[in-house]
Amino acid sequence: MKPAAFEHLRPDTAEALAGLLSPEAKLIAGGQSLGPMLNLRLARPARLVGLSAIRALGEIREQDGMIVLGAAVTHARIEDGDSPVPLPPMLRHVARGIAYRAVRNRGTIGGSLAHADPAADWITALTALGARVVLRSAAGTERRVAMPGFVRGAYRTALSPDEIIAAVEIPAAMRDAIWGYDKICRKVGEFADAIGALALHPPTGHVRLVAGATGAAPLVLAEAGAELARSARHPAIPALRDALAAALPGTDPVKLRLLATSLSRAIAKVLPA
Amino acid sequence: MAKPAPPEQQQGTGEMTSGIGARVLRKEDARHLNGKAQFVGDIKIAGCWEAAFVRSPLAHARIRGVTKPAGFEDRVFTMEDMPDLRPIRCESTLPSYKVSDYPALATDKVRHVGECIAICIAPTRAEAEDLAEAVTVDLAPLPVLADIDTALAPGAARLHEDWDDNLFLTTRHDGDLSGAKARAAVVVERSFETARQAMNPMEGKGVLARWDHRADQLVVHTSTQVPHLIRTGLSDCLGLDQAQVRVIAPDVGGGFGYKCVLQPEELSVSWVARKTGRAIRWTEDRREHLTAGANTRQHRYKLTAYADGEGRLLGIDADIWVDIGAYSVWPFTACLEAAQAGGNLPGPYDLGAYACRTWSVATNKPGFTPYRGVARPGVCFAMELTMDAIARAVGKDPLEVRCLNLVPGAAMPYTNVTGKFYDSGDYPAAARAAADMIGAGNFAARKAAAAAEGRLIGLGYACFTEQSAHGTKVFAAWGLPLVPGYEQATVKLAPSGAVEVRSGNHSFGQGLETAIAQVACDWLKLDISRVKVTMGDTALTPYSTGAYASRGMVMAGGAVSKAAEELARRLRIHGAHLLQCAPEDTEIRGGAVWNGQASASFAEIAAAWYLHPDRLPDDVDTAGLEVTEGYKPAIDTGLFTYATHAAIVEVDPESGRTEILDYVIFEDCGRRVNPMILEGQSYGGAAQGIGSALFEETLYDSAAQPLTSTLADYILPGPAELPHFRLGHSETPSPYSRHGIKGVGEGAAIAPAGAIVNAINDALAPLGAELTRIPATPHRVLGAILEADAAREAAE
Predict the structure, then answer these.
(1) What is the complex's ipTM, to 2 decimals?
(2) Are A123 and A143 members of one domain?
(3) In-domain check, residue A2
(4) Same domain, A124 and A152
(5) Of the candidates B285, B655, B778, which has its C-beta nearest A1's C-beta?
């Protein structure tokens, strides 16, 4: 389990990085997902471009009502609240539950989003929080993609080959969100079998109920979310299961049950069942 | 003039802080905790190259050709390059057994994913893997025997083409069940399945071979439990005289049975080292382990139990299938698992009538290898779930049904229905003790209180015996090509007055290095820091068949005991001369020979013997202060450790997750040499058993492609998944072994699946769901609940 030979570059500025982007190049930040794939030779890029020397990618700040997390901010920093601006409590809670501390020390929020493993935490949690992803092209132009649209499917995102994830932006109002997050996995630290996430912010009308680890992109349950916000009542598990079954045709009954359970448990953190 | 050995168990009064019974910290831990241990991967030899294997991507295929990358023909080797390397070949004396060749590198066919086809060498592993990728293998796919049913189907392809079916072995035990059937008030029928597993020692296999021109020897450093056996196997296959092979097992990071057989990689690496004159190392990586090393535990059962209205067992009728995989491993063969399964199914129970048929089925998977507990985790799971099913059928407490059927102390020694000789103990007492420890008396109230909160909790038991240190007759009856007998050890007083112990057995995490030193301390009455233990090097130690079958402590410990006893006798003779008294008037304590207030220290005696023989009489016994003795227990049918495990679990019916709320082990393994090491063995074994019960499973698709090739897919329990184990012990010394010791290395891995799944089924009983397959994953638990729901709805 040794990687095939590759060229390894570590630019220290965004400009230098821009010149290195190409379809043959693969970006690496913490390497917690890409590293094993390189070792298994499932990924065999000719060129590996490390992001950890670019300081700007590790910054956290607040700007225009958004909390901006640089793409190379590690899960551990979020878990620890190691940030010049306060982070939403849900963000820190989710970070704490990602894999193991050794993984969190190296793994980054941007890397997790770019990898888009359907069972990973950030794609689901950030969808619930109404986050958007800042994508920067080699030419220096930026575009912002809201979270439900960024993940296109299992391991598929809106990233173009000449773009990097520069940052993640989360509405600062989410510091006051009412939230619930639940993850079912076979073992502490393993990838999830089901994730339920709920974030509510009545002043701004934000309501997001999301099922994660579906095997595809996180599923936003808009109707069920709106209904629970309106009624302030915990939906019945069979109703959640029916909503999931309608949205995820062909999913086996056990998986549906797990997804419904984690959704219900996430909601229960906010509204007693 | 040598006195006969004293009666068994005379020694070990526990007066010494390092002797038998002392909770001594392990000698080996300092180097492990400080990262100073030396595993195969730590060995540095100038000019050593690394090896990587080209492994089969298909489960069953004919090899049409292997093309080496141009320019690298001298760095890639196939079986065609090795006409002088004999395949691993296991003979067996069992009548229906079929012999198969297991070549170090595939010849005409590949028979499982991960089978070695070619070995590639380069200065680094990464370069060796590059080379392996560049080798082209032309394979013509053959029909795949992915499971037992496919392999046994009429007209199935043949795994070994000179066979007339796909069966390594069938066995029968034809007891007469007519009386049991006639008298039975209840009949319980169940089918059970256990998953295929990989053993996952922290250190996988590893081998480093080189030719030593000075010694004219092939020197093989390998991560093994059985260095002397590997020497025998290597010299047989390589066509070398045993004198030309030296095997050194350095620190070994876990064995569990995975490393008790001759590995094809040991052969090919050795052959290449000899051929090229280079030191060559290969280190198994985790993907290789999880695919090519997924070689154990997979059983299927169909059981019918007959009992009277009280739950007294009248008879058992069993069919057992073992998914052996493609090859017979040396020396334990493809026979061991089924022979043990059929022989051990009755377990600790007093059973009148027993019939059993076993099938050892050849499939396109890695060849079955004995894993901690060998067959018994499977048979214990099947038998213990059956006991609970009987209890439900007769409406009695599962503990009471067990106690009704367990062999009682008054019946000891007891020969069971398959001829196993249970040497000592009181099995019902252990079951009751476990029940008391876990609070069985008030469990019904606890369960009702949980139910009132909407929680499902359950209590489960599993009882077993662990045959340990079984010897010649037992292994001969299993038809093995190689049968263990005596064990030798050397104990020497060094010139400094320190003691050296040499054993051909091996220590690989189970603490044998410390435990056999304690046995020497017991006779020589000195602190363990004064005992140096050397193991694992065939050049430095007496022949031993090695550490497996829970034999190390009994056999190596027994041999060290005999040698240390004899050394103590000689020390008293020399000490008496220095003290000018009769040997009978001396005693040994505190590292010295004493006569009244006068003493001669071991250092003084050693100085006299080695450096100042003028201080000893002219007619001194020249046998010296280095003693090699051999040992075998008074019986070689094995010493039976026994235990009951009890578990309380909570099952979450919404997520299918099982949480272990309490776990108790009550065990009797005879005299305990080091209770702390024993506790460690219990924790580790039970952790592996919990892995089998709830987590571990090598999954395959219909083409026998392994789907669990990383630790993200193959789930091992971690600290958060394991309970705080609570241990209880009784000590019934075996009348048949030195110091009354019984083996204990495997036991704790045997019972967890039975105890936990019984507890799960107890918890699920209100829902009408029952599990009969392990691991009891959340998916299976939820599946069983959904199925029970559907059945209930259909009935309404």
Answers:
(1) 0.95
(2) yes
(3) no
(4) yes
(5) B285
